[in-house]
User: Fold this.
Amino acid sequence: MTLQDAGFLALYVVVLLALAKPLGLYMTAVYEGRHTWLHPIVRPVERGIYRLAGVDEEREQGWKGYLIAILAFNLLGFLLLYVILRAQGHLPLNPQDFAGVKPSLAFNTAVSFMTNTNWQSYGGESTLSYFSQMVGLTFHNFVSAAVGMAILVALIRGLVRHSASTIGNFWVDLTRGTLYILVPLAFIVAIFLVSQGVIDTLSGYKSVTTLEGGKQLLAMGPVASQEAIKMLGTNGGGFFNANSAHPFENPTAWTNLVEMLAILVIPAGLVYMFGKMAGSTRHGWVLMGVMTSLLLAGAIVANVAEEAGNPNLDSSGVSQSASADQPGGNMEGKELRFGIGESTLWATVTTDASNGSVNSMHDSYTAIGGLVPLANMATGEVIFGGVGVGMYGMVLYIILAVFIAGLMVGRTPEYLGKKVGATEVKAVMVAFLSFALAILAFSAVASVDRFGTDNLANGGAHGLSEILYAFTSGAANNGSAFAGINANSTFYNLGIGICMLVGRFLPMV
Assistant:
């Protein structure tokens, strides 16, 4: 690992941890209903939404009512996006006159964005209209993140309340998370991205003359507004097929740093919020330390592996050492403007969270370098994890660890004053085992059936890695891809869609 890469990693972690406490305190105030500096502006809007929706913000729900509200809201959101995608050709803001999306792809995409996965079996600039991107996808970028935060807050209330039969009001938590947290942060980040050259326009695609004198159609669109919430909501879906390797999404070193910070800043703040609301900030910092250690371990391993280069090229006599003519290491699939250090850190950060964005191609990584993002997702993405989801996923691990430790020392297991018994452990194991079963079952079928193998660009072990990565990404609600696999087929659209549903809703329930 070079000194420059080590310095950048240190800077990233220091800034992330410095932001976690103030943001965590702010979010605690929001969800506890206390006054914040945004209240004079946002509170009238919040009250207006409650009046229009017929929501009594003082009335709390039990866990069943809270869960039913979540499932109903997600079902309606799925149907809305599915209809928009199918009817895209008849809707406005479609300058390229794209036709409606085929049924299996519309199902996969609607499930993907509803579950905060943002897996994309399509190229955004060649498939979706501005209306579909702005109204369909961006809506889910906000609310799927707000749902994840609401679930975490409800879980915290359930843990810290010793006698109450209610855990809050889903509609209130959803509204506050969106209005007080996601919208203001997304506005700030979007303005910054525009200042750095990220485009945001409703004009049609531009025909330009290249340096060689040829003609090229340049895809345009309202990118910055979607890019901001794509990162902050740990969504990850790219406006363009190249995602954050595209210069219209991520043009400079500053946007690269800020977008990486945006991916983990809310999850890190939620860890501190968890400790604060649970009455033990020390516990929150312990969890923060565990997650940060795992983040550093992944980033360092991936960086060292990619800096070492491809051993097959070494054996062929090709130099991969840094020199005046080349940066050194394995640069295949990486942007020269980011290099190995910022590429491998992004790959680690984005798979620590349920954020499928990429600024380099994971399929081009070395074996160990590619193992890091796959292993991060296989944990259930609890190394900070998705917005809300990573923290309540970590609680599952804590409950299991507390139970095992209690059995070993002969004491009744407890966590935050709540006894952990057979019922709780069975629920935890359902979440863990269903996650593994969904990945392995679909990967097994895809690796031996022509519906899976006919869509592979690579055979053998690497092809199996691509299959395993795809279904792990779906079940972990991540959305990144190894690539090298044509996932826009009926089998993969439906199979990965089912994995996304299992990975999102079974742990949630």
In short: Residues 20-205+219-265 form one domain. The CA atoms of residues 356 and 480 lie 4 Å apart. The chain is about 65% helix and 0% strand. The chain has a mean pLDDT of 91.
